[in-house]
UniProtKB/TrEMBL annotation:
Organism taxonomic ancestry: Eukaryota, Fungi, Dikarya, Basidiomycota, Agaricomycotina
Region listing for Disordered, in residue ranges: 1-22, 309-330
Protein name per the record: DUF2855 family protein
Any matching Pfam family: DUF2855
Basic and acidic residues bias spans: 318-330
Length: 423
């Protein structure tokens, strides 16, 4: 039996430890009673869990991503930073202790937290403003800054205190910005020189259907007249994906090549790979051949990864400089998109006010439009969260599910329809 003074943290064995990475444990450790200078202690109220977090776990030790290097693993017998990692989550919390003079007890915050009850974070003394404060992580690349910023909700133009909107925020905000900035990049590149067809794999995933949603908005604005969006997904997810009404056509992986939708004709295609499945990509590129039908392909996700099989070549990412004068990519060479890298480019081109304005409009539109896309499932407490994680490992994560977890005991609210948020 644990007390409310204990900290609880969901941890996973590192693949390099030789243990089964899917055997998660909830570690009990002391909650810090005294804070070093320039630190905050955050009570993590709740956090979202999605296929994105499964990807974070699978890439925890991958050199380009290093997701296990964001939060230190608590040390108890049999558990250490060498043997276990913490998969980051996007969540909301409250500052309960602060040794930084500009960050106050009681502040509501949102950010890249740990799946725990409490989280102790250092604060960059010179990087605090009314909108956010930054966690110093000098061991990680500088372009990871979006992950290092903790948002102060009282000044966040995107924040809405409605519990329903907070839940949707935890599910969509990290995924949506990947989709948003990827579409921005595709638009800046002219969609490969005027594509009339957009093919998106893992179409039932939130990253994919948010991308489809944004492309559809671009089509409706008459920027891409006549363009059609085609989604690829597994047979079991076809019905869900069609019900979203975000794709013009939805095809399954097993039979898409024989579909009349995939007849090449005179159309130009852009392929957005969200699945990260090498076999699927080989089939896609073989279908298009070298006839000029495929004009651009981009990798922006790895939804088919599992923590126990992170060795696919799709995980071998390299930095994309997004330089105009670099050697052009062949359409069949997946150009890797990593949101922080493109956002760093755009921050040199746009003012903070311009970026904030773009994001606010897009976010408010999403919160209005997304409420019926998935069903929220809330799980609270140590045992139930562990059981829910084991269930995800066993049966996978259905695209219609939006998981909201908390390691604090409370009344579970499972399989609830998403309430309409008040915007």
């Amino acid at each position: 039996m644990t007390s409310t003074d204990d900290n609880l943290t969901l941890c996973h064995p590192r693949p390099s430890s030789g243990q089964n990475p899917n055997q998660a444990i909830v570690v009990v450790s002391p909650t810090p009673s005294k804070l070093p200078p320039n630190h905050v202690l955050i009570k993590v109220d709740r956090f979202g869990f999605s296929a994105n977090n499964v990807t974070y776990q699978a890439l925890g030790e991958a050199p380009h991503f290093r997701y296990f290097d964001f939060h230190p693993t608590p040390e108890i017998e049999g558990v250490s930073p060498k043997t276990h990692g913490i998969t980051p989550v996007w969540g909301f919390g409250t500052v309960v202790k602060s040794s930084h003079p500009k960050i106050h007890i009681g502040e509501r915050v949102y950010g890249y937290l740990s799946p725990s009850r409490y989280l102790l974070l250092p604060v960059s003394p010179s990087d605090v403003n009314k909108y956010a404060f930054s966690v110093p992580r000098p061991h990680l690349p500088a372009d990871r800054r979006p992950y290092n910023q903790i948002t102060r909700c009282s000044s966040d133009p995107l924040y809405n205190s409605s519990p329903a909107v907070e839940d949707l925020t935890m599910l969509y905000r990290p995924l949506f910005w990947t989709s948003f900035w990827c579409e921005d990049w595709l638009f800046r590149s002219g969609y490969g020189g005027g594509a009339t067809r957009i093919l998106i794999s893992s179409a039932s995933s939130k990253t994919a259907f948010c991308l489809a949603y944004l492309i559809r908005k671009r089509i409706k604005s008459a920027v891409l007249p006549g363009t059609r969006i085609v989604g690829l997904t597994s047979r079991k997810n076809v019905d869900f994906t069609r019900r979203l009404s975000l794709y013009d056509d939805v095809l399954d992986y097993d039979s898409f090549i024989s579909s009349s939708v995939m007849r090449l004709g005179g159309d130009k295609w852009v392929y957005a790979d969200v699945a990260g499945n090498d076999s699927l990509n080989s089939n896609v590129f073989s279908h298009f051949g070298d006839g000029g039908h495929l004009v651009k392909s981009v990798a922006l996700g790895l939804t088919n990864l599992s923590p126990s099989s992170p060795g696919a070549s799709s995980t071998k990412w390299s930095k994309n400089e997004f330089q105009k004068d670099t050697k052009p990519h062949r359409p069949s060479d997946l150009e890797q998109f990593f949101m922080p890298e493109w956002l760093a480019v755009r921050r040199n081109e746009l003012s903070v006010a311009e970026i904030t304005g773009m994001q606010k409009i897009a976010w408010n539109d999403l919160m209005r439009d997304c409420v019926n896309w998935v069903t929220l499932c809330r799980v609270c407490g140590r045992e139930d969260v562990k059981r829910a994680y084991d269930d995800v490992v066993k049966r996978g994560l259905g695209p219609e599910e939006g998981l909201i977890w908390s390691l604090w005991e409370g009344q579970n609210a499972k399989d609830e329809s998403s309430p309409s948020p008040k915007l």
